[in-house]
Amino acid sequence: MRVFVTGGTGLIGSAAVAELLGSGHSVLALARSDASAAAVRTAGAEPLRGGLADPDVLRAGAARADGVIHLAFSHDFSSSEAITAAVAEETAALAALGEELAGSDRPLVAVAGTPQTPGRPSTEADPLSTEGMMGGRSLAVAAVLELASRGVRSTAVRLPRTVHNQGRGGFAEVLAGTARQTGVSGYPGDGTQRWPAVHALDAAVLLRLALEQAPGGSSWHAVADEGDAVRDIAAVIGRRLGLPVESVPSQTYGPLGALLATDQPSSSADTRRALGWEPKQPRLLDDLANLQP
After folding, report:
1. How many CB atoms sit inside 10 A of residue 192's CB?
2. pTM > 0.85: yes or no
3. Domains detected in the chain
């Protein structure tokens, strides 16, 4: 299968490209810079120059492919305005991809976050929240799933708040970055809130399986760790960076503060059973041993 991938040079995207190539697929990857194009070629894929803001390029990439995996997203979380702009850009990009694929029965894999369900781990059957700053992203993914009625084998892989590799990635990296800036390995609230996690290499396998097997309109959970207590994550970061570990106000983390303070464990039992996915890589607390001081 020839697969068009957006975000193919990021933490998750580079793992996905390698997984696809290693499984016998060929990859056309969106590249917004010369450096990204060079990285795509080095990985063994073909670059397509352009960005998410160019719907003509996105449609051209989808037209040349047997399926699409969309991973690109701006990770500027510095302000609510930046997050809103990123969601709007992605919404338009997914609409362009969907229009090109309509009526073709080709797969389109989009990503979202795992939902929060008070009192229990969320499951694949739980709806995504359409409230708050990231609510627009849930609406965009819902629109992708509705493309199943228009001849697109569309599916959503829900990623946990921390997708990691070699101690980098996700909300754990936010904690580590803030710890370096403030001199304290902090956690919001009492730190008992739990975050799900998955290694990027395991997430890449699920993205491939969804592309190859998943029926249209389905959602899956790329969750290896059902929920690590945030204070345990902060404790490992503190040891690696040689910093004290303390509770800090949620405002320390800017627009993400309220989200970081929530308890949000998640299950992937249905995904493992239906698609035969089984995470094999190190868990988050073990992988954080690779965090650079």
Report:
1. 11
2. yes
3. 2-162+197-225 (3.40.50.720), 164-196+227-266+283-290 (3.90.25)
